[in-house]
Amino acid sequence: MKVAEKVYLIDSFAVPGIFSTYFLDFDTKVLIDPCVVSGANIILDFLSKLKVSKLDYIAVTHVHIDHGGGAATIAKKTNAKILAHPKGLKHIANPEKLWAASKAVLGELAEIYGKPESIEEEKIIPVEDGQSFDLGDDELVAIHAPGHAPHMVAYLLKRRKILFPSDAVGMIYKGHVFPLTPPPFDFTKALETLEKFEKLDVEIVALTHFGVATKDCIGEAKKRLKLWFEVAKEAKTIEELDSKLKEVDEAIAALEKGSYFYSFYLTSLNGLLSAKS
After folding, report:
1. What contacts 223, CB < 8 A, 6 or more positions away?
2. Distances in Å between the alpha carbon of 198 and those of 81, 100, 110, 122?
3. Kindly report the CA angle at 230 between 226 and 235, in degrees rounded to 5?
4. What's the pLDDT tens digit per position in 184-231?
5. Where on the phi/psi map is residue 211: left (φ > 0), alpha (ψ -120 to 50), or beta?
6. Given 119, 213, 241, 276, which residue has the most CB atoms within 10 angstroms?
7. Spatial distance between the Cα atoms of 260 and 186, rounded to a whole number of angstroms
8. What does the angle CA 97 – CA 164 – CA 238 come to, to the nearest 5 degrees?
9. Model confidence over 7-63: pLDDT tens digits?
10. DSSP code for 56
11. What is the reported pTM?
């Protein structure tokens, strides 16, 4: 799917409509959010159809395995350097601890996603806040975006006014934007990140779960995050929080039980309960 001139969305998982990987087809070629290991061949096949065999950079927004899991696999195939937050670098180079934590949280789903490969640390570039990459006829700017994860980096394609915020904004499903707040979640930093995004000159927000939206989604995400966090203060269990949220937020009814998006929602409830204390 073409998002804008030289910007493509790759539906990068065996189950359609769950993970968006973005390919920037400029003189400097960049892949943003390389998804899971089991989706690597989908991404490589897409690039092959565009006659692209080499990448300059693979931008990992954060090291959670549904965003950075395929990075090393694809980097080895395309001779790319990996861009990552300084705090996440070691987990990309050696993902053993990350994999153990992922299995503990995700269970069988981790096996479906696949175990990330290791890669030499010199193949990974630590990205600083505000660091800019010249792509040719556009500029990609890195923005540190903590809250969802301390090692989160969003990216802004300046000329085309496209923001790639990953999970810092949340997930979009049936026209609604829902917070993604897995443990350990930092509410204050997440809110500051959304407020930072609101000040950017942006027209398109390209989300990882799933697809693109207008800038209005940032304000919707901020409003819903504040509501959910306040409700979480009065709840003691996930079941109680789920019940209370459904009383005040009708949009939650759009999330279908048993779906990937519903599992993301339940993980977010866990993070909200942990963050309030």
Report:
1. none
2. 30, 36, 33, 35
3. 140
4. 999 999 999 999 999 999 999 999 999 999 999 999 999 999 999 999
5. left
6. 241
7. 23
8. 55
9. 999 999 999 999 999 999 999 999 999 999 999 999 999 999 999 999 999 999 999
10. S
11. 0.96
